[in-house]
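As the next step, I wrote out a protein sequence along with its fold in token form, included below for the reader:
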Amino acid sequence: MVQLPLDVLINILSHVPPGRDRRDIGGLTLQNCLGVSYLFREAASLSLLWKPHYQMRYRYSDAYREQARSEAVEGNWRLMYAQRREIDRAALKSLDGIIATGVGLQVALTSLVGQSLDVWDVLELESTCPIPAEFSQTSADLGGDTGEDVPEHAICRRYWARNIRDTIARGYGVGIWRRFKLDSEAPSFELMMSSMSTFFGISDKEISNILDDLGARCRQELVEKNIVIDKTQVDYDLRTICVEICAFICREGFSASFQVKPDILDKFPHAYLTTHKDTIPISLVHVFVAIAARLGIQAFPINFPGTVLCHVSTHELDNPPLIVNPSSRNPDYAVLDDKIPPDESPVHRMSRYHPQQLVQRLLIPCPAAVMLLRFCRNVSASFSYGSDVQKYASALLISVIMLLYESDFINFAELLRLVKLRPLDCIFLLDEVEPYLAEDRAGRLRETCAAVLVEQRAEVQEQKWRKGKNPGFFVGMPFYTHASSSPDFIWKWRGQLQSIGYCSVTEGLGAIHGARAYQDEDEMFPATFTLKDIRYLYNNVVDFPLWFEGVDLPKDPSKGVEHRDGRGRLLLSPHAKQQYPSDSDVGAHWVEHGVFGLGEAESKSGSASQ
């Protein structure tokens, strides 16, 4: 049999495209080649063949452990790939266990979170796995062009993968903010602002990539306009460049927000750099400072009342620094000097009512730590206008910063009630925050987290069996009340069926954790619902996938209409089935026959378990 020359085979394998998806076809192709023959093994063992696959799949890693792995295999990309894939497999095994049983949940979660950025990539891929059509918003949700099948417990899988990844991101963000306690290692204003999105599961690296792109395009525009950007050249004009940066920012769609109702998201970089460009001054200063840095210009925030400004260093003794207002509606008036109309300058306007000496003292570079607290005040002012998911991440972020820096601008207890801590939050807080607190705050945090973890363990271990054959309702049942105009869904019950917890299409998470958490059974009436209702809950109720994983609303294929009188239900997740072992059967019976009831086997099982 004629064999290909080794160099030809290597060339062929070098064209195997690297990919970043759950199937990892490129990596598996090279892996399979190792077992074909001695020749294929020799070709596929070449370290450089694996480099693009490694760099495509693994964008994040714990720096210390990554260096140790690289040194252990002398920089061999194939062996490093094999090491990371082994870490991936262990992480997926832990994830499967968390989804399926919840037993040993805290230990498994602690283990995964402890691996930090080494498991970020695999969790990120799992958090985008295909999901059932009932919950999908885009073709990517259904598998897109990858041809992936919907995995078992898909939305539960996304939920846990995303939440664990988010917890790792938050820990990384807190690690950045802790450096403010060490003056020699204090992070820059740009890094501080970029790290704020870690509480939404977005790494500062992603934010930096967006800013890199903005900086590169701004540089290109300056070059095309023949504007000198080399400060060693005689024609270099810093004022002109600052004006042009502000003009570029305006052309990119950024502007200062004058909304009556502030939006939480326009405070966070992953949003104001993409979809929420109508933002607030501190956000625009972040963009300006970042672009300026990529042009070799040092700029710092100024903690000016009303509007955050920029201090731009000239590094010339005979030239004072420039004061820039990136929020100016007219970029030509962005540099606040005597070349612009006085009314266009917030500094001039303030000077009308305050001594000039006082105003000038305000125009100095501000430490990033001070801007951290200003950022928190901006976010706290927006709690009334965000969705539940946005409020949750924002309140958790502010709680952490309050704990670390003992700021008292918001009542800490009120924030904790808004956050409603979950086990994952407690694991992260006890690991990343508690060791760095004063003892009184550390003790308070330990007590709060201990109560949450004890409650979670008790909840997982408790199974709620029914007594009798006519339960009247079940977890996942849609219902109306006399007061409601849209369906609610039962998500828990306790005691002798005397109290019902529900999630609401109109109230979202507030109905789970808020004032109307329980209803009288006599006020409940079975309801119909639409897929629009389901998608609303999936997108807006933080813990919806923890309890439900699908929808049972049969349709008559021949008529294209709902049958069984429109009866449907939410399908229970493994977590919910473990706590309510008979409710799936009760729900299936009701959907099929229109009546409540338990079969003899279920009734006996429930009686035996009481």
In short: The chain has 27 helices and 13 strands. Confidence is low (pLDDT under 50) at residues 507-518, 556-561, 599-610. Residues 154-178 form the longest helix (25 residues).
